[in-house]
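Shipment paperwork, digital attachment
Item: protein structure file
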Amino acid sequence: MSKAIGQAVLCAATAAASMMLGSAWAHEPGRMTGGGSFFCPYLTGNQRVTHGFELHCKLDGVDVSEPNNLEINFSGGDNFHLTTLTAALCTDTQAIEQPPSAGFDTFEGAGTGTFNGQAAAITFTFTDGGEPGTKDTAVIKITVGGSTVIDCPSSPSSFLTFGNHQAHRATGNKP
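Attachment content:
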């Protein structure tokens, strides 16, 4: 792994850890869309995890009316659906070559939803490392009743094998 990529992964992991300590809202306007798949070493056999999302950054004092959607599937039938985004921090990470038009490259979030129909919590970090998506990363952790059901940390496996994340600049007065 190159030094720049290693630094990008480390920065994303460090930022995600600091975000988990408290609720945070974005400092950069915009949204991130996309999805794809990556391999998670937490799962037996380093299984493929697929995901799709549209998530909006939230600025201090601004209510975001757009929907926030996130779905994660793995293990041949396990799934998570986001119902409430509780934290969203959009930042520009120095070690990641961001899309020039977006203003940010990293979306760190937390929320609640359902995992196989049960109440669940999620923390995640998605990055947009430019085109064609091979430098984009996904880091996720889902818990149900305090027990971890999936924890895909920042690692070489967190790079997308298929798919693409896209950071988008805010348009008009809405992020």
